[in-house]
Amino acid sequence: MAKIFEKFVEKNDIDNKLRIPSNSNLEALPPCRPGQEAKLKVEDEDGKIWEFTYTIRTENRAFFTKGWLQFAASKGIEVGNMVTLFKNDDQHHFSGCGADQYKITVKT
C-alpha cells in the first residue's frame, strides 16, 4: 500500500472538515481540479466502506468534506489522533469498492 497522507487530527478536522496535509500525494487520489469535488470510497480497519467527498481549493489546500464528519463521529476520533490514508496496490487485500481502493486507519 502506498501512503497518501498521515496527520494528527486538529480541532477543525473534527468540527468541520479534514484538511489534507499540503505534502500529501494528491496524485494518488481520483482526479479533481481546484474548485471541484470528487468522491472517494475508503475501507476502514473493520472492513466498512465509507464515501468521502473531497475538494481541492487551491494547489496545496485539499479537504475531506461530506462523509468525513460521520466517519470521525463513528470512530470517536479526537484531537491528537493519527489518521492515515493509503492507496491499495493489491486489490486482493480489500473487500471491493471499485478499481481504485483506499484504506484509512486511525490511531488513538
Quick summary of this structure?
With 108 residues, the protein is mainly β. The protein is 12% helix and 40% strand.
What keyword list fits this structure?
At1g16640 B3 domain, 108 residues, globular, mainly beta, 12% helix, 7-stranded mixed beta sheet
Domains, number: 1
Report the span from N to C terminus.
21 Å
- Helix fraction by DSSP (H/I, runs of at least 4): 10-25%
Helix-strand string = EHEEEEHEE
Mean pLDDT: 89
Q: Helical segment tally? A: 2
Low-confidence stretches: 93-97
CATH topology type: At1g16640 B3 domain
* Sheet/helix structural class: mainly beta
By CATH, the architecture is named Beta Barrel
Count every beta strand, where a strand is a DSSP E run of 2 or more residues.
7
Oligomeric grouping of the chains: single chain
Characterization of the model:
- The protein is mainly β and 108 residues long.
- It has one domain (2-107): DNA-binding pseudobarrel domain (At1g16640 B3 domain, Beta Barrel).
- Helices cover 12% and strands 40% of the residues.
- The chain has a 7-stranded mixed β-sheet with strand order 1-6-7-3-4-5-2.
- The longest helix is centred in the middle third of the chain and has 8 residues, at 68-75.
- It is globular.
- It starts with a strand and ends with a strand.
- InterPro entries: B3_DNA-bd (IPR003340), DNA-bd_pseudobarrel_sf (IPR015300).
- Keywords: DNA-binding, Nucleus, Transcription, Transcription regulation.
- It is found in: Nucleus.
Please specify the SSE layout and strand pairing:
Layout lengths: L1 E7 L2 H5 L2 E3 L16 E7 L5 E10 L2 E4 L3 H8 L6 E6 L14 E6 L1
Parallel strand pairs: 3-7
Antiparallel strand pairs: 1-6, 2-5, 3-4, 4-5, 6-7
